[in-house]
Design brief:
Helix content is 41%, strand content 16%. By secondary structure, the protein is α/β, with parallel strands linked by helices. The model is unreliable at 1-12 (pLDDT under 50).
Length: 388
């Protein structure tokens, strides 16, 4: 993910109380949560905060990009379950950084929360971005233990908040929802590009359906490939682009061959900068089994691309109960094929859904709204600490 040139700060954009904030993540590889963290880091920095990022597993491509922009990004290894009990190196690192707030993201909650306490009782804010494909039994007690050391808990969707309250049993502090936000300047209608179409070797007459995301079981690419195989014979100008990479790529390529659609499907691979590729799409599809608040879906909305998504997790809210796009049942090939057929056959409908998508992104999922909401959480966490 490559950042656009930083937008100039004006006095009104600055936060009234600049803080030192340390983000903590397992890594900054190219994936949804990591993109949200990078967006928040940049936005907070533009508002005058001193922001750094600590990675516990690897820095990754997004981390390298942030480093090139002058953001302090450090690797402080904290491997395994035992570091949940005694995160010595992480605590020493926090003590040296001396942040006002440690903002932890999914995957390192307990160890970062314990390290922040060991480093002098630094207030901790935690954001839950999604669920593991398969969550081991010990995750629930770990999350409950982490909550006891956390000043504020945020989830990126109402579905995740309910999961934390109900299935996990975390009620104190009470989880709150802050919707993911994206840069609606980078992702915007009219950002004409032929990057993806050149890679696919198709022209402007082609109708390009696209998916952006890692090739993992939870993303259910198989559903999209099977649905596309149903509609491809009656829509000869339709093509499918799968943007991203992952463990299932070989299996998905074999499925493409078995379905007889190899000439119409492009495995576009992983790209740091996806905005030009999204701009090339006529239809965006998200077919996951579960989602928090999908960044790729928000990017498509902001780009004014008509969207089809499975009615799971945060997708229903993102598409405003279906008013800003098409929702289909999870893992239903026929339903997804019908939705694709409808949109491929109706340019006016695609245009209208694209307009609604852009409006939805501006109204509910802007970077500015997300950043201000987190600033308010930080201030409440600091005020609570000082009150004690």
């Amino acid at each position: 993910m490559t950042a656009a040139a930083p937008r100039a700060l004006d006095a009104g954009a600055l936060s009234p109380t600049p803080r030192r904030i340390e983000m903590v993540v397992p890594s900054l590889v190219t994936a949804g949560m990591e993109m949200v963290v990078a967006t928040l880091v940049r936005a907070l920095a533009r508002r005058g905060h001193d922001v750094g990022v600590t990675c516990t597993q690897e820095i990754g491509a997004i981390g390298e990009q942030l480093q090139s922009e002058g953001v302090p990004v450090a690797l402080v290894p904290a491997p395994g379950v035992l570091t949940n009990l005694w995160p010595r190196d992480l605590a020493r690192w926090f003590a040296s950084r001396r942040p006002d707030i440690v903002h932890v993201h999914s995957g390192v909650w307990l160890k970062a929360a314990r390290a922040a306490r060991l480093a002098g009782g630094i207030p901790v804010v935690h954001t839950v971005h999604g669920l593991l494909d398969e969550e081991p039994w010990h995750e629930r007690p770990i999350k409950r233990a982490a909550a006891q050391r956390t000043a504020a808990i945020v989830t990126v969707s109402e579905a995740l908040r309910r999961d934390l309250l109900g299935r996990v049993g975390v009620t104190d502090p009470a989880p709150q929802v802050i919707l993911n936000g994206i840069d609606t300047h980078r992702f915007a209608p009219g950002a004409h590009s032929t990057v993806l179409r050149r890679q696919m070797a198709v022209d402007d007459a082609a109708l390009v359906i696209g998916h952006v995301g890692r090739m993992a079981p939870v993303k259910n690419h198989r559903l999209l490939l099977q649905a596309f195989a149903r509609v491809a014979p009656t829509h000869p100008t339709a093509h499918l682009a799968l943007i991203g990479d992952g463990e299932l790529r070989g299996e998905l390529e074999a499925l493409v061959d078995s379905l007889g659609i190899r000439a119409r499907v492009c495995f576009a691979g992983e790209h740091r900068e996806v905005a030009p590729l999204v701009a090339d799409l006529d239809i965006f599809v998200l077919c996951s089994f579960s989602e928090g608040t999908s960044i790729s879906l928000l990017e498509a909305l902001a780009s004014g691309i008509p969207c089809v998504a499975t009615a799971v997790g945060g997708n229903v809210a993102v598409l405003d109960q279906g008013a800003a796009g098409r929702l289909v049942p999870s893992d239903d090939v026929e339903a997804l094929a019908r939705a694709l057929d409808e949109l491929l056959a109706a340019p006016a409908l695609r245009h209208e859904l694209g307009r609604r998508a852009r409006e939805r992104a501006l109204d509910a999922y802007s970077e500015a709204a997300m950043t201000r909401a987190y600033e308010a959480v930080y201030e409440r966490a600091l005020a609570a600490r000082h009150a004690h």
